[in-house]
Amino acid sequence: MIKDPPLLTIRRNFPRPSAQDVAAFANVPTGYAVDAMNGRGALDYRIKPLAPATSVLVGVAVTCHCGPADNLALFGALAVAQAGDILVAATDGFTATAVTGDLVLGMAKNRGIRGMVTDGLARDLAGILGVGLPLYCAGITPNSPVRNGPGTVGQPVIVGGVAVNSGDIVIGDNDGIVIVPRAEIAGVLNKLADVRAAEAALEAKVKAGLEVPDFIEAILKSDRIVEI
Length: 228
Hints:
single chain; 228 residues; alpha/beta; Glucose Oxidase, domain 1; nine-stranded mixed β-sheet; three-stranded parallel β-sheet; elongated
C-alpha cells in the first residue's frame, strides 16, 4: 500500500543569485539571452504575456508544481517568495481549469512579487489586467481549480519543456520567457557583450542596405553547395 503524500513539500532555503547578477539582466531581450546560451532556454512558444510587455521582466524564480485542477502549491510559493521574485507554476500543461486569477495575482503584487509564469491557464482576465502584475501563461479559461494538493514548492519543475529551479533567473518580454540557470549566470553575462556587439554590427549593415550576409555568401560559393 502506498502512503498518501503530504499536501505540500516545501523547500524554503535555496541558493539565490546576487542582486547585482539579477540587475545585470534588467534590459536584456530574451533573444539576446538565448543567443548567449547557444540558442536555447526559451519556454514553449504558447507561454506568452497576457498583456503586451512594456519592459523586460526579470527576477528570481520561485517554483511550484501544481497537480491537475489544483493550485495549493501556488499559494505555498506565494508565501515563500520574496519581493522581486517571480512565481513559476508547473501544471504539466493542464488546461481544463485555471491555476491562477486576479485575486492570487493581487496578493502576489501586495507581497512585492514581480510577476508569474505558468504552463497552465488563468481566469478573470479583466481583473488580472487591472492588477497589472505581469503574467505569462498558455491561455484563459473561466474554470476554477481547488486547493487540495499534493504539490511542491521550491523543487525542480519542468515548465514549457524547460527545467526550472528556484534560484534561476527568469527573463520575459513580448517574445516569451527565457530561463537562465543559476549555475550559468556568470557565463551568460560574459557572452552578452559579444551578442550585443554582433547584433549591433549586423543591424547597422542591414540599415545600410545589406541584402545577403557575407558568411552566407561564403557558404554559397563553397564546395559544400551543389547546384542542380
